[in-house]
Amino acid sequence: MKVFFIGGGNITRIVLEKLGDRIERCWYYDLEKKDIPCQFIGDKFYIPSEADVVVEAASVEAVKTFGIDVLKSGKDFYVISSGAFADEEFTRRFAEELKNSTSKVFVPSGAVGGIDIICALEGYLETVKLRTRKPPAAFGMDAGSISEPRVVFSGSVYDAIRNFPQNINVAVTLALAAKDFNKVNVEMLADPSISQNIHEVEISSSVGNYKLVLQNKPSPNPKTSYLAPLSLVAALKKRIEKFVVG
């Protein structure tokens, strides 16, 4: 598999480490050269014609800046920064371009679980609730100012994005899986009893109810949980393996 990465940072490094020689050749675009075993194309964006797939491993802004160019190339596109699709105008233009493109777009599950359940429940899904608990300091609160969990936000995905943009990818990935942003509710709590972020996903449907608790550990870049790049590795493996589960 020949891969072009948008971004040469932490996520790309982990993908290269985990896939090893399954990647026959790779290139990456970034604003500066990184210390990774991949060919740097420079800081002028273009998509190498030999690449089989394009993998975004950079940011929401990178998806919005280069995403439509990827579709015009006809290459399959893996998007880890799903938060780009919270921008309704960008999503409209992206979907319009995709209609006439030979590209397929894949959004890995990222730092959240339950995506397979939500997708399987199409036609039966009722609601999805994302409850994120963080230490008080994450909300700019003094750790000693509260003695029990306090709700600091409850509302829609769009409202959550405006108030807590750092959680944009998790909320949007759930909404994309649900195929309806209005079915997803987000709740944020400051919890003085914890030292790391905890995501709880509650899924309600006419055929069953499900609850997942995720206590992610950070990757070498503390802003990214380790699960996010590993989900990208798993998605790329599905492309090259002959026996696929899930």
UniProtKB/TrEMBL annotation:
The Enzyme Commission number assigned here is: 1.4.1.21
Claim: NADP is one of the keywords in the record: yes
List other remarks: The iminoaspartate product is unstable in aqueous solution and can decompose to oxaloacetate and ammonia.
Q: Which pathway does the record list?
A: Cofactor biosynthesis; NAD(+) biosynthesis; iminoaspartate from L-aspartate (dehydrogenase route): step 1/1
Q: What is this protein called?
A: L-aspartate dehydrogenase
What organism, scientifically named, is this protein from? Fervidobacterium thailandense
Please provide the Gene Ontology terms (biological process) for this protein: NAD+ biosynthetic process
Keyword list (alphabetical) reads: NAD, NADP, Oxidoreductase, Pyridine nucleotide biosynthesis
Which residues are recorded as binding NAD(+)?
Answer: 111, 169
Which residues catalyse the reaction? 199
Q: Give any GO molecular function from the UniProt entry.
A: oxidoreductase activity, acting on the CH-NH2 group of donors, NAD or NADP as acceptor
Occurrences of domain Aspartate/homoserine dehydrogenase NAD-binding (ranges): 50-108
Described by its record, this protein's role is as follows: Specifically catalyzes the NAD or NADP-dependent dehydrogenation of L-aspartate to iminoaspartate.
Q: Which residues form the Aspartate dehydrogenase domain?
A: 147-233
Q: Which reaction does it catalyse?
A: L-aspartate + NADP(+) + H2O = oxaloacetate + NH4(+) + NADPH + H(+); L-aspartate + NAD(+) + H2O = oxaloacetate + NH4(+) + NADH + H(+)
Top-level taxon in the UniProt lineage: Bacteria
The UniProt similarity line reads:
Belongs to the L-aspartate dehydrogenase family.
- InterPro entries, per the entry: Asp/hSer_DH_NAD-bd, Asp_DH, Asp_DH_arc, Asp_DH_prok, L-Asp_DH, NAD(P)-bd_dom_sf
